[in-house]
Design brief:
It comes from Phormidesmis priestleyi ULC007. Involved in the biosynthesis of isoprenoids. Catalyzes the 1,3-allylic rearrangement of the homoallylic substrate isopentenyl (IPP) to its allylic isomer, dimethylallyl diphosphate (DMAPP). Pfam families: FMN_dh (PF01070). The protein is of the alpha/beta class. The protein has one domain: Alpha-Beta Barrel (TIM Barrel), CATH 3.20.20.70. It contains 14 helices and twelve strands. The strands form three sheets. The chain has an eight-stranded parallel beta barrel with strand order 4-5-6-7-8-9-10-11, surrounded by six helices. Strands 1-12 form a two-stranded antiparallel sheet. The chain has a two-stranded antiparallel ribbon with strand order 2-3. Helix 2 crosses helix 12, helix 7 crosses helix 10 and helix 12 packs antiparallel against helix 13.
């Protein structure tokens, strides 16, 4: 099987496994259950006063929500991306697409990522694995995927554990930081670095910030385990066991947020990893994140119908709004400054 066919098969497998198999973290949580908001029984607000608008990398958003990077490269993935793009446009959410490596390998599937016409005003993130910078990818390939999506930024994802578990994974991560720094300097759009569900520590965040990344998505542990996903599609017993052994590996999302904020109060910060509702989104904002990313809930809804996606978006907005109202904060900035989130 050639490289493109392998990549496309992997894309299809990932969607199927995430939707049909139990690949959520088993014992580790996102850590947000340790936090509780102080209830304000007398908010000096009308519910209609609540304003969820924000900006990220200078771009306006209707709410602090990112539809996290998921898929592309197959006809089913194209349907998912088109439905998600419509939601991003309608609600003014940010949206990332899955790794566009498959489109670099075969431009015939580029249209599965080409969603700008559906979401002309949305904040869109292109996506490539950072490790591909060690496998013949450079500025040209990165610029190509940005232009394909007409993206506002490029996400480089870090996934060393997934590559270890994946059969024939790309495991040469040597010297990547220097190559990321060059890309940050040369690319036409900002570079965002994210994990894929195992978290970014404060120490690594500090190195990435020094390298010039424009934003960080911590993508902590507590949600979908890509070790479990790769275990499900492993071609031998060793890889299958590796995925099971490391199913709960990683830094919980809440710990990642506090660690990154401890070393940098200003770096634009996305919290993702196991977020499932608007209350958890609000907790990440109160902890210091600027944006909250969700993947699995949006994937489930998108695979069902456009109506299911609208219902999900509506309830997420209502849940965040309720948190602000019941803590006495009219804006996200006020929530961050309120001190109403307690570690219990």
């Amino acid at each position: 099987m050639d490289s493109f066919a392998e990549t496309q098969t992997r894309k299809a497998d990932h969607l199927r496994i995430c939707l049909d198999e139990d690949v959520q973290c088993r014992d580790v949580t996102n850590g947000l259950e340790r936090y509780r908001f102080t209830h304000n029984c007398l908010p000096d607000l009308n519910l209609s006063d609540i304003n969820l608008t924000t900006t990220f990398l200078g771009k306006p958003l209707g709410a602090p929500i990112l539809i996290s990077s998921m898929t592309g490269g197959t006809e089913f993935a194209k349907l998912i991306n088109c439905r998600l793009a419509e939601i991003a446009q309608h609600y003014k959410f940010a949206m990332g697409v899955g790794s566009q490596r498959v489109a670099v390998e075969n431009p015939l599937v580029a249209d599965t990522f080409a969603i700008r016409s559906i979401a002309p005003n949305a904040v869109l993130f292109a996506n490539l694995g950072a490790v591909q910078l060690n496998y013949r990818y450079g500025i040209d390939e990165c610029q190509r995927v940005v232009e394909l999506l007409e993206a506002d930024a490029l996400i480089l994802h870090l996934n060393p554990l997934q590559e270890c578990v994946q059969t024939k994974g790309d495991t040469n991560f040597r010297g990547l930081l220097e190559k990321i720094a060059v890309l940050c300097d040369k690319l036409s759009v900002p570079v965002v670095v994210k994990e894929v569900g195992n978290g970014i520590s404060g120490a690594i965040a500090q190195k990435l910030i020094a390298a010039g990344v424009a934003a960080i998505d911590v993508a902590g542990a507590g949600g979908t385990s890509w070790a479990k996903v790769e275990s499900e599609r492993a071609q031998d017993d060793k890889q299958r066991r590796l995925g099971a052994t490391f199913a709960d590996w990683g830094i919980p999302t809440a710990e990642c947020i506090t660690a990154v904020r401890a070393i940098s109060p200003d770096i634009p910060l996305i919290a993702s990893g196991g977020l499932r509702n608007g209350l958890e989104i609000a907790k990440t904002i109160a902890l210091g994140a600027d944006l909250a990313g969700l993947a699995f809930p949006f994937l489930q809804a998108a695979s069902e119908s456009e109506a299911a996606l609208h219902a999900l978006a509506d309830v997420l907005i209502s849940e965040i709004t309720t948190v602000l109202f019941c803590t006495g904060n009219a804006t996200l900035t006020a929530l961050k400054r309120s001190g109403s989130l307690l570690n219990c």
